[in-house]
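stuck on this chain:
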Amino acid sequence: MTSVEEKWFLLKAKTRQEKRAMENLQRQYVECYCPEIFVEKIIRGKKSQVIEILFPGYLFVNFRNPASLINSIKNTRGVQGFVSFGGTPARVPCALIQELKEKIKPSENLLISNLPKRGDKLKVKNGPFNGISVVFSKPNGDERAEVLLNIMNQQIKASILFSNLVSAD
């Protein structure tokens, strides 16, 4: 008895409807995969950890006979359609899906941070130091950052709200 080869395809979901599309596809017994990661970011001036979709707007589906399911999948709520080239749905290598599943395990809570690192150059966007370049030193609680600013050739420590800092790039 030979095993039937898995066939993974890439679907485009409607804006911010990846989860809805997944739920509706799973009701049709279609195997879906939408990798998620933990991200540390500043939201409304507070340091927060949130779960984000690794590839926003996309999800992977696996089925053996795509021809029989193409119309029902395209008409599923939350799904915009297949990513296709020349009218043929794009196949995704099984090895890529396997590698993603191994590297992004929800149980490991891998955290990706886009917070500034020690020594990063930032700019103050509000308050008395508006427009001044600063160097990030360390977080000072969940809402503030300790920074170094150069005033009259002297480095001065200051505590500034994360929401008042932007990248100097």
